[in-house]
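User: Can you model how heme C sits in this protein?
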Amino acid sequence: MAEDINAVIAKLQASGKYRSLFNKAYGDEEVTSQRMFRSMTQFMGMMYSYNSKYDRYKRNETTLSGQEQNGYALFLTKCNSCHKEPLFSDFQLRNNGLSVNPLIKDSGRYTITHVLTDAFKFKTPSLRNIMKTAPYMHDGRYASIEQCLDHYTNNVTNMTNIDPLLQSGSIPLTSQEKLDIIAFLNTLTDYKFLGDKRFADPNFQ
Ligand code: HEC
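Assistant: Here's the modeled complex, given as structure tokens:
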């Protein structure tokens, strides 16, 4: 968030509400970066999404419709090599052929490592709850999931460090197959997780 840690600590220390919360958690009001990070670790460590329709299907608690099954089968052949189930990421850095955005010229992993083979590589994101997290890609260039699929079928750019899996060009999909994949992606939405009040903005509760 482009903020300095010391400024964050000063802001928290200035807030009566946070002083009282730190007191509750740690026995006194002192705000330190270590306490801050421990609290956030505890908070993020309890965020588990495991109740989507896909998860319930995997646990034999429900069935997929014909269209969802078709989408799942297509997903496994066309997308799963990078968006690997069950977390829908292989946690690798890859280049999925997005042309360089002239406004921000983000060269991806290269910005951190300065290794030329890292240029334009971005971490494969998970697709869990993907229907709820538009806009898409590192720069938010796509507003809809349809545009993401159109990217893979029509717009994969043969550029520096393009992933070997996409070197032969786009991923062919008919419009019906796209609809089937979208039906499958819809099964990755975990309404129980998304509606969990513990993760909501406390100021709006
Ligand atoms: C070669 C690896 C690879 C393949 C194959 C691949 N993807 Fe991706 N995908 C990526 C990477 C890497 C990104 C992140 C790009 C970025 O952030 O700019 C991504 C991003 C996405 C996003 C945006 C996610 C977000 O949170 O912004 C969606 C949606 C997506 N892929 C769906 C698919 C679907 C559906 C398929 C199959 C048709 C597929 N991908 C095939 C590597 C791949």
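A couple of observations from the model: The pocket of heme C is lined by residues 78-79, 81-83, 94, 96, 98, 122, 124-125, 127, 130, 133, 136-138, 145, 148-149, 152, 163, 165-166, 171, 181 (CB under 6 Å). The mean pLDDT is 95.
User: Helpful, thanks.
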